[in-house]
Amino acid sequence: MKPQIKIIDYNYNLPEEKIAKYPLENRDDSKILIFKDNSIGESKFSNLAELLPDNSLLVFNITKVVPARMIFKKESGAIIEIFCLEPYNPSEYNRSFDSKNSCSWIVVIGNAKRWKSGYVLFDSQANKDLESLYLTAQIEERIDDKFIVRFNWRGENSFSEVMDLCGKVPIPPYLKRDSQALDTERYQTMYATHRGSVAAPTAGLHFTQNVIDEIDKKSIKRENVSLHVGAGTFIPVKSETIQDHKMHSEPFSITINVLTEILEKQRSGLPVISVGTTTTRTLESLYYLGIQCLEEGFPSNVSQWEPYNRSLYYSTEESINALINWMKSESIDTLERRTEIIIVPGYKFRIVDILITNFHQPQSTLLLLISSFIGDSWRDLYNYALSNEFRFLSYGDSSILFRS
Fold first, then answer.
1. Residues 6+ apart with CB under 8 A from 358
2. Residue 256 and which of 41, 115, 279, 306 are 20 to 30 A apart at CA?
3. Which of 13, 33, 25 lies closest to 374, judged by CA?
């Protein structure tokens, strides 16, 4: 049954001056709010290792943000902005990024009403190297508020290289500024590896090599998943109740080795720490994939309301073990699936015990996730952060939340 939740109940006043428009000079100089045993404290992110329990498993999302915004111009002079969301043909990320001369993507188009037909040319701004690419875009199909656009270009560059040459970093719209050179580095985690996101997994932006080194001195295991963050993460909840909100779908991958580590922590009762809401959505989706293996024989994708529509009498250990066994039977080392999972109050967490995350927008699905993790205490946390000079949203400060 879909949860009956009014979005207005998850509102708070976020003054514009509390939103961090730029990152701090040093990533780990950010503050970190600590919520543990119903008590609130604070520290610096550089001290994170001291806050993590021994023998825990720390999981990162190693997706990499791509420069997905490109500016084109019609012969009339009209400016057309194309925001690439995910590959369409070829649909696999690696194959699309490796494409030469042509590929199609699902996109959002700015100023679409000015572009009815024909192709548009990338606005090279008289840069001879970019002019020689002769990058063009043409609409192939419209799907609701999105489009399928085919890109064509000259030369030997891959589409990944074309993006690097022509694209801009898609920083969040609430920053209310254009992307700058510093965003290329800072709107990216230091451990980003798998290209594909159009928004950063921002909880990871605070990590530095020094923080990682301090963590590695402790008996803490580090593992990775990859979920490509879509533009849907910025879409506000416009419906009055959450049951009428359509959650976005995002692709993720996880190796059998990480699943085995999770299973080991479940069996030993040791904590799993998730770096960010995107990692959390990935990890929690695994339980439902395991149930699919138990009940249907194989894992498909995780739908938005699956956690609320199933009889969940399997243990997490049973579910993860079933998923591992299916992968072994299929000789699969890395599982690739999609998730639409929405985590709201009433959700029962199966894998994540501790969450590292930033401060999120009012009336957002991310704030609902926080509320589902620590209950109504989220208001106390956010009031504390607002009253104690914490910086909010993507470039803002961090928090570490211990689930009771």
1. 202, 203, 392, 393, 394, 396, 397, 398, 399
2. 306
3. 33
DSSP string over 302-344 = B-TTHHHHS---S-HHHHHHHHHHHHHHTT-SEEEEEE-----
Rounded average pLDDT over 176-203: 95
Between CA 225 and CA 194 the distance in angstroms is 10
pTM for the full predicted model: 0.94
Q: How far apart are the first and last CA of the chain?
A: 25
CATH topology for the 7-65+187-402 domain: QueA-like (3.40.1780)
- Tell me the C-alpha distance between 139 and 117, whole Å: 7
* Domain residue limits, the chain: 7-65+187-402, 69-167
Q: Are strands 136-143 and 79-89 parallel, antiparallel or unpaired?
A: unpaired
| Kind and range of the H or E run holding 109 | strand 102-110
Q: Is the bond into 90 cis (omega within 30 degrees of 0)? A: yes
pLDDT of 115 reads: 87
Q: Is the dihedral of CA 293, 335, 69, 203 positive or negative?
A: positive
Handedness of CA 93, 158, 102, 166 (dihedral sign): positive
> Could you give the count of Cα atoms lying within 13 Å of 249 in the half-sphere of its Cβ?
7
Question: How open is the CA angle 190-182-24, to the nearest 5 degrees?
Answer: 70
Which residue from 221, 289, 297 is spatially nearest to 60, judged by alpha carbons? Answer: 221
Instruction: Report the distance separating Cα 192 and Cα 396, nearest Å.
Output: 19
Partner residues linked to 139 by β-bridges: 149
Integer CA distances (angstroms), 146 to 86, 149, 211, 231, 295, in order = 11, 10, 40, 12, 35
The residue written with tokens 């001879």 in the block is 128
- The least confident of 142-146, 187-191, 344-348 is 142-146
149 sits in which H/E element: strand 146-152
- In this structure, the number of other CB atoms found within 10 A of the CB of residue 375 comes to 13
